[in-house]
Amino acid sequence: MFTDAIELAVAALGLGLVVLSVRQARSKGWAASLQLAAGGFLLMGAAAVGIVGFVVGLVFSPLAWLGVASLALAGVLFATGQKLESRKSGAVTESGPPPKGAVNPSPKRASKGSTGDPELDDIESILRRHGIE
């Protein structure tokens, strides 16, 4: 009953927009009049098809809002789980060759000579003396 009243009001509003567009066709121009009429026919069509009743049923249904809250909670829990999983698996410990296109985090140097930076050469020599390579 309540839904029917809202559908009737939306259809009446659409009819009012169509009538208003016809009356203002000469003063506002035909383009604006046709756009206003299209909006009115859109409202009347939505009421006739039942889209308005569907939306009203969703808005005023406590069960529908319970469903929306459940979906929101599921989204929050999923996102939290993803964030916790990404923190937990920060370091990948895989054996075998890296996948195609993967960047090697510790590239091997072609030569064991100097790197070109005197400070790094000093650090490397200190590490070699202590048996660390």
Mind explaining what this structure looks like?
Residues 86-122 are annotated as: Disordered. This protein is mostly helical and 133 residues long. The chain has a domain at 2-81. The protein contains six helices and no strands. Helix 1 runs antiparallel to helix 3 and helix 1 crosses helix 4 (51-59).
Give the SSE layout.
Layout lengths: L1 H22 L1 H4 L1 H20 L1 H9 L2 H27 L29 H12 L4
Keywords: Membrane, Transmembrane, Transmembrane helix
Which key phrases capture this entry?
133 residues, mainly alpha
Compact summary:
By secondary structure, the protein is mainly α.
Cα-atom Rg, whole angstroms?
Answer: 35 Å
Supply the helix-strand structural class.
Answer: mainly alpha
Give the helix tally.
6
Mean pLDDT: 83
The helix content is over 70%
Q: In total, how many beta strands?
A: 0
Strand content: under 5%
* Biggest pleated sheet: none
Keywords: Membrane, Transmembrane, Transmembrane helix
Transmembrane segments: 6-22, 34-56, 62-80
Region (Disordered): 86-122
